[in-house]
């Protein structure tokens, strides 16, 4: 198959480009964003492939991984929306709204056929790749995943909840990277109290600041200012999914940001008086996913059935709703290291 997803999660575009995974013999890897489920085989890729990504993604990887990243000649940041020529292919990366630095990938092959990968994406988008063949993220690929509220409504209810809860004590916010930073930006105008982050997250937030996020009131947990804020009892503590969870939240309110555990008809789910889940999401839902495919113009679609999504259901729906040739990825391992 010209396009597919391997058993380890590498999206393969012809025999030239892998996205978010490693396959031996493919000269180029595109890293669409920094989330862990898209980082399989990154060390192998560093040894064997030329790796393309955006500057924010490169900066986030540099903060998180080893110090040699800025000095490696085979990691290259390229501009959004600029076509680069590599291995006789034209490659273009477009923003996909999922998190800082995240992209859709469009590859024009030497024979003129264009194929691409959505990456994890949000909707709506200003610009969409134009391809004949597409590998599609299937996170919310089930027809049961249609939200009855907009992200703006979810954002507003989230802000209201924090404004209300912080009156009676600290608020703890737990979210995936990307969602967390978006949440802080949302709250920036509405909340006067400081945010506190651990050292690793704090360093990462610095990258977001450099790339234009307004994150004005975040304190590093070890500092005197953070201690004062904690003593005063009015602050927002930030955790991403890699942080140790708070074991005793005391008088604090815990707000988890996830569309995965939430209801489809209400963005706020109350677990208890002090524990909530709000459906802030950086993924398109089912209907939005179909809309995205329509705008790419793809006539053949491979749904990513490797990253725990709904590849089979989504492929069926794409056939029925859009009449495109769609099938789930094969997830074969055989080509990872050649035969
Ligand atoms: Zn992601």
Question: In summary, what is this structure?
Answer:
The protein is α/β, with parallel strands linked by helices.
Topology, element by element:
Elements: E1 3-5, E2 11-13, E3 17-19, E4 28-30, H1 42-48, E5 50-53, H2 55-64, E6 75-77, E7 84-86, E8 89-95, E9 103-108, E10 114-117, E11 133-136, H3 151-165, E12 171-175, H4 179-187, E13 195-197, H5 199-210, E14 218-220, H6 224-232, E15 236-240, E16 253-257, E17 268-272, E18 275-278, H7 286-296, E19 300-303, H8 311-322, E20 325-328
Parallel strand pairs: 3-4, 4-5, 5-6, 10-11, 11-19, 12-15, 12-16, 13-14, 13-15, 16-18, 19-20
Antiparallel strand pairs: 1-2, 2-3, 7-8, 8-9, 9-10, 17-18
Helix pairs in contact: 2-5
This protein binds zinc ion.
Residues 33, 35, 98, 120 line the site of zinc ion.
Any overview of this molecule?
- The protein has 339 residues and is an alpha/beta fold.
- The protein has 2 domains: 188 residues, Ribonuclease Z/Hydroxyacylglutathione hydrolase-like (Metallo-beta-lactamase, Chain A), CATH 3.60.15; 128 residues, Rossmann fold (3-Layer(aba) Sandwich), CATH 3.40.50.
- Helix content is 25%, strand content 24%.
- It contains 8 helices and 20 strands.
- The strands form 3 sheets. It has a 7-stranded mixed β-sheet. Strands 14-13-15-12-16-18-17 form a 7-stranded mixed β-sheet. Strands 1-2-3-4-5-6 form a 6-stranded mixed β-sheet.
- The longest helix has 15 residues.
- The two termini are 17 Å apart.
- 47% of the residues are buried.
- The structure holds zinc ion (ZN).
- The site of zinc ion has 4 residues, from loops.
């Amino acid at each position: 198959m010209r396009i597919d997803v391997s058993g380890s999660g590498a999206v393969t575009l012809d025999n030239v480009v892998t996205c978010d995974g490693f396959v031996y013999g493919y000269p180029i890897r595109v890293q669409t964003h920094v989330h862990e489920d898209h980082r399989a085989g990154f060390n192998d890729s560093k040894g064997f492939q030329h790796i393309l990504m955006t500057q924010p993604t490169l900066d986030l990887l540099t903060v998180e991984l080893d110090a040699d990243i800025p000095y490696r000649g085979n990691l290259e940041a390229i501009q959004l929306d600029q076509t680069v020529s590599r291995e006789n292919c034209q490659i273009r990366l477009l923003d996909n709204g999922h998190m800082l630095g995240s992209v859709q990938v469009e590859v024009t092959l030497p024979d003129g056929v264009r194929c691409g990968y959505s990456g994890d994406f949000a909707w709506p988008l200003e610009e969409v790749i134009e391809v004949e063949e597409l590998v599609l993220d299937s996170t919310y690929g089930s027809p049961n995943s249609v939200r009855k509220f907009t992200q703006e409504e979810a954002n507003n209810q989230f802000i209201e909840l924090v404004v209300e809860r912080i009156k009676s004590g600290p608020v703890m916010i737990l979210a995936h990277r990307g969602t967390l930073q978006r949440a802080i930006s949302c709250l920036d105008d509405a909340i006067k109290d400081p945010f506190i982050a651990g050292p690793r997250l704090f360093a990462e937030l610095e990258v977001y600041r450099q790339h234009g996020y307004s994150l004005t009131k975040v304190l590093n947990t070890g500092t005197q200012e953070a201690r004062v804020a904690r003593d005063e009892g009015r602050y927002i503590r930030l955790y991403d999914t890699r942080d140790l969870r708070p074991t005793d939240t005391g008088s604090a309110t815990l707000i988890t940001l996830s569309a995965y555990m939430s209801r489809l008809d209400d963005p706020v789910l109350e677990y208890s008086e002090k524990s909530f889940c709000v459906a802030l999401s950086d993924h398109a839902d089912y209907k939005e996913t179909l809309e995205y495919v329509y705008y790419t113009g793809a006539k053949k679609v491979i749904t990513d059935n490797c990253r725990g999504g709904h590849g089979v259901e989504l492929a069926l729906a794409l056939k029925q709703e859009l009449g495109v040739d769609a099938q789930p990825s094969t997830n074969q391992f055989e080509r990872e290291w050649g035969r």
